[in-house]
């Protein structure tokens, strides 16, 4: 995949200044309207994205934006527009995970479970986190790595109610990958993660935190939950 046809993704975790909730109803309403408009403008300009609330679920994080664009420039422009509009002026970037969608080394023909999380209907929950493997992993032969990943994927296929997406972050961000899961069943997702802990692939994990959990909601609903009347 060349730079000309790459697709970039971003998980943008934002936290609100508590002082904003002490503004008047009129001020918060106006801020909310401007913020909602800014989110809509970004998506009309070729960026695809979805909003998730994390209010009280993640320390310091109230809103999670999961976005896809043809360039990093487009992601930056969209983020700038959101952060300078109304409620956005009271938001702080808590985490930003950048990656590039590309073909897998280990999957010849991806299933629907392993496709981009920007197609089809949204599930209720999104879980996204950075992921980094050890130097020893990359020094293994291709055949050895394929064998380990075959086991990893076999376990994943036992949980068809969980969809996943993998983006490469090499040279773009601190982690190796951005990993995202979408599901309506958080209990099943927890079972999947626990099952994967017992596979050989776990030995090569260096870091897979922070784990960000969001609930899919219309941006208007999220603004209301944040306090925009």
Explain what you see.
With 229 residues, the chain is α+β, with helices and mostly antiparallel strands. 31% of the residues lie in helices and 31% in strands. It has 6 helices and 9 strands. Strands 1, 2, 3, 4, 5, 6, 7, 8 and 9 form a 9-stranded antiparallel beta sheet that branches. α1 runs antiparallel to α2. The longest helix is centred in the first third of the chain and has 20 residues, at 25-44. The radius of gyration is 19 Å and the shape is elongated.
Quick overview:
Helix content is 31%, strand content 31%. It is α+β, with helices and mostly antiparallel strands and 229 residues long. A hairpin with a 2-residue loop joins strand 2 (48-58) and strand 3.
Rounded to the nearest angstrom, the radius of gyration is: 19 Å
Range of helix content: 25-40%
- The total of beta strands comes to 9
Low-confidence stretches: none
Proportion in β-strands: 25-35%
Largest sheet geometry:
9 strands, antiparallel
Shape: elongated
What's the helix-strand series?
A: EHEEHEEHHEEHEEH
Distance between the termini: 46 Å
Structural class per helix/strand content? alpha+beta
Mean pLDDT: 92
Tally of DSSP helical segments: 6
List the defining traits of the structure above.
about 30% helix; alpha+beta; single chain; 9-stranded antiparallel sheet; about 230 residues
What's the SSE blueprint?
Blueprint lengths: L6 E10 L8 H20 L3 E11 L2 E9 L2 H12 L7 E11 L23 E9 L1 H5 L2 H15 L5 E7 L8 E7 L2 H12 L7 E3 L4 E5 L2 H8 L3
Antiparallel strand pairs: 1-3, 1-4, 2-3, 2-9, 5-7, 5-8, 5-9, 6-7
Helix pairs in contact: 1-2, 1-6
């Amino acid at each position: 995949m060349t730079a000309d046809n790459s697709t970039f993704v971003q998980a943008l975790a934002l936290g609100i200044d508590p002082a904003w909730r002490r503004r008047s109803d009129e001020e918060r309403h106006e801020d909310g309207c401007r913020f909602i408009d800014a989110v809509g403008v970004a998506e009309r300009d070729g960026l695809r994205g979805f909003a998730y609330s994390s209010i009280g679920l993640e320390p310091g994080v109230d809103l999670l934006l999961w976005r896809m664009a043809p360039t990093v420039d487009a992601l930056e422009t969209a983020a700038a527009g959101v952060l300078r509009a109304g409620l956005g002026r009271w938001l702080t970037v808590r985490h930003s995970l950048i990656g590039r969608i590309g073909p897998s080394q280990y999957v010849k023909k991806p299933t629907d479970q392993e496709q981009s999380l920007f197609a089809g209907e949204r599930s209720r929950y999104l879980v996204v986190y950075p992921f980094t493997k050890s130097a020893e992993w990359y020094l293994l032969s291709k055949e050895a790595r394929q064998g380990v990943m075959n086991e990893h994927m076999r376990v994943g296929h036992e949980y068809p109610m969980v969809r996943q997406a993998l983006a490469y972050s090499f040279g773009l961000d601190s982690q190796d990958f951005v990993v995202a899961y979408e599901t309506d069943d958080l209990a099943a997702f927890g079972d999947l993660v626990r099952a994967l802990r017992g596979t050989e692939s776990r030995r090569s994990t260096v870091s897979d935190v922070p784990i960000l959990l969001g609930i899919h909601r219309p941006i208007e609903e999220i603004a209301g939950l944040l306090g925009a009347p």
